[in-house]
Design brief:
The chain has 12 helices and no strands.
C-alpha cells in the first residue's frame, strides 16, 4: 500500500513537471509570435542606427567632462567609461581612441554641441524603441507626446549613466565617508554593509539597468502599465542581456578574428551587432509581458464564462 502511494506521488510530481515545461513552451511560442508578428527586428535596426550615432557625441561629452575632475580621478573615470561597453579588444580600442582624440582643453562650446548632438540622436533612438513598444502594446499617443516622452526619458537615462560614472569614480571617497559615519554611530556592522555594497559596482549597474528596463516597459508603451505586470519582462531582459553580453565577449575575444574579416570596420560592425541584439532582447521582454497579459485575460474570460 505504501509503495502504491509513493508511485502515485512520483507520477503526480512527474506530470506536474511536464505540465510546467509544457506551459513554459507555450509561453515561449506565444512570446515569439508577438515579437515576430510585430516585426520587431525592423524597429531594432532603426533604433540601433540612432544609438550608434549617439556614441560619438556621448564619449566626446564624457571626455570633455574630464576637465572638471581632479587629476587623481582621471584614470578611474576613463576606466569606468570603458567598462560600460563590451569587453572586446576591438571595441575597447575604438572607444579608447575616440576618448584620446578629444582635446584635454576642450572648451564649453564643443561640450555643448556634443550634448545637443547626443540629445538629438539618442532621443531618436529612444523614440524608435518607443514606436516598437507601442506596436507590441497596440497603444499610440500623439507624435508630440511621444517625442516629449522620448526626450525626457533620454535625459533621465543620461543622468543615470552620469550617476553610475560618479559612483564608480568616487567609490573610495564614498567608502571613507561610510566608514566615518559608521565610527560616529558606533555601528561597525554598518561599515561592513557599506563596504560590501561599494566594493563591486557591477551589482549596482545591473540593478540600475533592470530598473530602467522596468520603467521603460511601464511608461514608454503609449500608456502607463501596472508596474507589477512589467516585472517578468524586466527580469527576463536583464538576465538575458547579461548572458548575451558575456557570451558575446567570450566568443568574439576567443574564437572570431573579426579584424581579418572586416578590417578597420570590425569595431563598428561588432558594436552595431551587439547593440541591435540588446535592443531585440528589450523587445523580446516586452513581448513576454504581452504574452503573459494575453494568457491572464484568456484565463479570466474562461473563469467568467464558467461562473456565468
Amino acid at each position: 500500500m505504501a509503495e502504491t502511494t509513493e508511485k502515485k506521488e512520483e507520477q503526480s510530481g512527474s506530470d506536474s513537471l511536464r505540465d510546467r515545461f509544457r506551459t513554459l513552451g507555450q509561453i515561449a511560442m506565444e512570446t515569439w509570435k508577438v515579437f515576430d508578428g510585430n516585426e520587431m527586428s525592423i524597429y531594432s535596426g532603426n533604433a540601433t542606427l540612432y544609438i550608434l550615432m549617439a556614441m560619438v557625441p556621448f564619449f566626446t561629452l564624457a571626455a570633455g567632462s574630464i576637465n572638471f575632475l581632479p587629476s587623481e580621478y582621471l584614470y578611474s573615470f576613463k576606466q569606468s567609461l570603458l567598462r560600460m561597453i563590451p569587453q572586446v579588444s576591438l571595441i575597447q580600442s575604438m572607444v579608447n581612441d575616440l576618448i584620446n582624440l578629444v582635446n584635454p582643453k576642450t572648451g564649453t562650446v564643443v561640450v555643448s554641441v556634443s550634448l545637443l548632438s547626443l540629445l538629438w540622436s539618442a532621443s531618436n533612438g529612444v523614440f524608435a524603441i518607443q514606436e516598437g513598444l507601442m506596436r507590441i502594446s497596440a497603444h499610440k499617443k500623439s507624435i508630440v507626446r511621444n517625442r516629449l516622452a522620448a526626450m525626457v526619458y533620454t535625459v533621465l537615462f543620461i543622468l543615470m549613466i552620469a550617476c553610475l560614472l560618479i559612483f564608480r569614480v568616487f567609490r573610495t571617497p564614498l567608502e571613507d565617508a561610510g566608514r566615518k559615519i559608521a565610527i560616529f554611530l558606533r555601528m561597525p556592522e554598518l561599515y561592513k554593509v557599506i563596504h560590501e555594497f561599494l566594493k563591486d559596482g557591477s551589482g549596482i549597474t545591473i540593478i540600475a539597468m533592470g530598473v530602467m528596463v522596468w520603467l521603460t516597459y511601464t511608461f514608454l508603451q503609449g500608456t502607463v502599465h501596472k508596474l507589477r505586470n512589467q516585472v517578468p519582462g524586466a527580469v527576463f531582459t536583464t538576465v538575458l542581456w547579461i548572458i548575451f553580453s558575456s557570451i558575446f565577449e567570450w566568443f568574439i575575444s576567443g574564437f572570431w578574428n573579426a579584424s581579418a574579416l572586416y578590417g578597420s570596420f570590425a569595431s563598428i560592425f561588432l558594436t552595431a551587432m551587439w547593440l541591435k541584439t540588446i535592443i531585440m532582447i528589450l523587445f523580446l521582454g516586452a513581448s513576454l509581458n504581452k504574452a503573459l497579459r494575453q494568457r491572464a485575460n484568456r484565463r479570466e474570460m474562461t473563469v467568467q464564462a464558467v461562473s456565468a
